[in-house]
From TrEMBL:
Keyword Aminoacyl-tRNA synthetase: no
The name this protein goes by in its record: Purple acid phosphatase N-terminal domain-containing protein
Signal peptide coordinates: none
Source organism, top-level taxon: Bacteria
Key words, A-Z: Membrane, Transmembrane, Transmembrane helix
Origin species: Candidatus Dojkabacteria bacterium HGW-Dojkabacteria-1
Segments passing through the bilayer: 6-25
Molecular-function annotations in GO: acid phosphatase activity; metal ion binding
Keyword Transmembrane: yes
Length: 132
């Protein structure tokens, strides 16, 4: 009986995670955009910025959307904000530059586009300056 209850809870949690955690997210500059609509980010690219210890994050959306990045050094504490300056805060091509990062730290970020938060598989995306 106990195992049946645990199995049922597991199935319910799995179904819930599928509905909550589904994000269309194409990384690394892919030109493919499978089922991307509205403000969902796609063609996300993370690269070193022009300034030392900076990073440039770019992405696209199918419709004009306001967008920004939430980021931080802890996955569950994205307490910093970087504003999309590419499309006058409301466009289809988005670009955020984050300066003064520490090369020894790992950073996490989520894209907020059209009021919805996106990541990879429902979690923030991680990067470090040294890995770019």
């Amino acid at each position: 009986m106990k195992n049946r209850g645990i199995f049922t809870i597991g199935v319910v949690l799995t179904v819930l995670m599928i509905f909550v955690g589904v994000f269309v997210f194409k990384a690394s500059g892919s030109n493919d955009s499978v089922s991307v609509e509205g403000c969902n980010p796609y063609n996300v690219e993370i690269k070193k910025g022009e300034k030392e210890n900076s990073v440039e994050i770019t992405w696209k959306s199918k419709t004009r959307c306001s967008a920004y990045i939430l980021y931080g050094t802890e996955m569950k504490n994205l307490n910093l904000v970087a504003i999309d300056l590419e499309g006058d805060f409301r466009g289809k091509n988005h670009k955020v530059v984050i300066n003064s990062l520490l090369s020894s730290k790992t950073y996490f970020f989520s894209i907020v586009s059209g009021g919805t938060t996106y990541g990879k598989d429902g979690l923030p995306i991680s990067f470090s300056i040294s890995s770019l």
